[in-house]
Amino acid sequence: MIELVLGLLIFVVTHSLRVTAPQWRERQLLNFGPLGFKVAVSLLSLVSLWFIVQGYGAARLDPVVMWQPALATRHIAALLMLVSMVLLVAAYAPANAIRAKLKHPMVLAVKVWAVAHLLANGTLADWLLFGTLLVWAVLNFRAARRRDIEFGPSSGLATTVTVVVGVALWAGLVWRWHAWLFGVSPLGM
User: Fold this and answer.
1) Are 77 and 186 in contact (CB under 8 A)?
2) Is the pTM of this model over 0.85?
3) Angle made by CA atoms 124, 128, 133, in degrees to the nearest 5
4) Domain map (residue ranges) of the chain
5) C-alpha to C-alpha distance for 1 and 52, rounded to whole angstroms
6) Closest CA to 173 of 113, 90, 125
7) Phi and psi for 22 in degrees, rounded to 5?
8) For 155-176, what is each residue's pLDDT tens digit?
9) pLDDT classification of 181: cutoffs 50, 70, 90
10) What is the rounded CA–CA span in Å between residue 63 and residue 34?
């Protein structure tokens, strides 16, 4: 569990610099340049991911069960994940109306993903992982909305492609990839 907490701490700190230490972040950008700074944050992100995966995996071997989620929560979580995957794709797809309207669909995707997983899981490790990332995403989204971001014009075709790709990504996760990657089928199939 210590590895999970350490990984979450590294992740939250490195991904909150714009909000918690903006002047320090700006100095590092000047010192290392944008590319150097991104490489450093990316390396720290990989380290945090390694700790999170190791810690969460170890915690799953001897889980501390806080509550037993109802079967229906898996289905609710699956539907929420559909929304999350569309938001995730919208964060990267050019000229889509979802990103133009919401401004920060990646952070919203994390929020929806975390809520979905909190509903469907009831162990202490789940609550640490998904609860921490939900709190981070809520605070990050709030701060990000204060920054004015403008995107160019959006098109109906780009938005439709965004939704279709998001649905395809969701379908792949639900029916194959989640079980393959994490050893758990979201719908218990």
Assistant:
1) yes
2) yes
3) 150
4) 1-62, 65-189
5) 9
6) 113
7) -65, -40
8) 899 999 999 999 999 999 998 8
9) confident
10) 41
